[in-house]
Amino acid sequence: MKRVALSLVLSIVMAAMTAGCSAGSQRAVPEPFAFGVLGATCEPQRLAALRQAGVSIVELPVAWDRFEPRQGRVDGQYVAAVVAQLEQCRQAGIKVILSPGLHYPPAWVRGLPGGELRGSGGGVPRDSGAELIFSSEVRKAAHRYLSRLVLRLGVNQGLENIAAIRVGTNSSGELGYPGPDDGGNEREFWAFGDAPQKGTGLAEGVALSPMPGWVPGSAVWNGRAVTGRQVHEWWDWYAGSAVEAVVWQVKALRSLGYQGRVHVPVAGRGVLPADKAKAVAGHLDGRANPDGAQERGLDYLAQFAVLSMVPGVDVDFTGLDDVSAAAARSTVPRQDRCSPGDEETAVKDDVSSWSSQRYTSALARRTGLGLVGENPGPPDFPFTGGSSLSDSLAEQLRTAPGYAVDCGMTMFLFGFEENLFDDGEGGVTLDDYKEVIQQSN
């Protein structure tokens, strides 16, 4: 890494840690600030190196399709390997954030009634996760899987090295629906299966569409003009159904005996309040929708308020130093960093020039949710949302940890472990990360 740039991020991190509070919320930052990695292998030699570098926590991914490749049949060999990974992390003194991998459903789950999301244009997402939002049968299967996972891994026994469990609804394991083009059609919304539209196989406690058959963008429903109030109610139902599925997962884990922290990964900034008003006025026809947040059902202002009512939930912002941060950094004045008073400004003023991390973390702090973060990862990876304007992985390491502290987060997770052990091919090494960690303490 370039030492001048590295020194800059170190000074930012040290200054924020010395101040002991978030610039945006003035809340004390717990000491020590936790550094971790995503996509851990829990391989003993790597764990030793990570521990020596100052990493104290790792995200361990589990895959539902490998755990239960056939309905009712658990792969004992795979389970034993995951149990061994947990034990290796425990012995190394490393805490684990467990990702159950509901977004990697087996093929048989997609074959269940309502097992696949359906788009407003008739599409099916190419890389859809489990249809946890509306399908009763999928939720039953997911609950059985979670119960086996919790039992087999001993998660319900209060394992000291399980720091959190991640939950989400889309194919990236984040809150929300698939992207607008994931089904091969243009601008699809994802609540058009028989369950949400007709009530057939609808999960218990989940609401039916308030306008069955209405497609966003249409000014008419059942032969009558659609009112702004009706569109607003439909949007609230659409976005609300996504966050309800997250709450359902948290409650399922609690009922199975897990009482620790739960992380909800979120990306981007969702629908901004000003854009929401314009979108509703246009019947959700595509206006005021710069990043597909409408089709993804992301209304963080409302959804975070729901999550704040569930004890033990932290928002995990997955895009520290994403492409929006690179753009906001170049504005005059720059709009990438969190600032005092952001919690109020975010819901009153024009924040369209803000970085996603600034806006989304302000909403999390506003609702009292815990807050952790991670960088997007290599911009050329297919699932990191990168573009030609994105910062390189080396730049992300130089910048993202400072953003995490600056925005009142209590943890930074670097994406990904593999990139720290690839002999610098991705532009970063474990020594680079070690220097950031050491200088922050």
UniProtKB/TrEMBL annotation:
Under InterPro entries, the record lists: GH (IPR017853), Glyco_hydro_42_N (IPR013529)
- Which residues belong to any copy of the Glycoside hydrolase family 42 N-terminal domain? 46-109
Q: Which residues form the signal peptide?
A: 1-18
Do you know which SUPFAM superfamilies this protein is assigned to?
(Trans)glycosidases
**Annotated keywords:** Glycosidase, Hydrolase, Signal
Q: Which PROSITE patterns match?
A: PROKAR_LIPOPROTEIN (PS51257)
Q: Which Pfam families match?
A: Glyco_hydro_42
Record-given protein name: Glycoside hydrolase family 42 N-terminal domain-containing protein
